Amino acid sequence: MFSENSSTSTSTQSDDAAAKELAHTAQVAIETMATDNNGSYAGATPKLLNQYESTIQLGPGSGNAYIAANGVTVLGGGTGYNVTATSTTGDSFGITRSASGALSRSCRPSGQGGCSSGGSW
Hints:
- The chain is an alpha+beta fold.
- Helices cover about 35% and strands about 20% of the residues.
- It has one domain.
- Helix 1 packs across helix 2.
């Protein structure tokens, strides 16, 4: 039988996994948007990404991971981006594409749930 802490840990990891998947879904949506926009990420917003992928939930509710109003940031005049999903636990998982095209993944709080102690996933 599971202890309460084990059950809570499993639930947190599951909730965080949903946020990681949503961050990836947002990444695919913003890349598709850029394809339609001559390679530029300029103008990307959570609402616009939701138009590309309707499963992207905007804001908290219904017990699902979501992209907050400030969950999409365009970098370098449209040459890069950061998309961040928030789990129902409040943990956040982001994917950043730099102007050079390098991808990185970050999360907070580090060392909790599905976020490594180094702050990446």
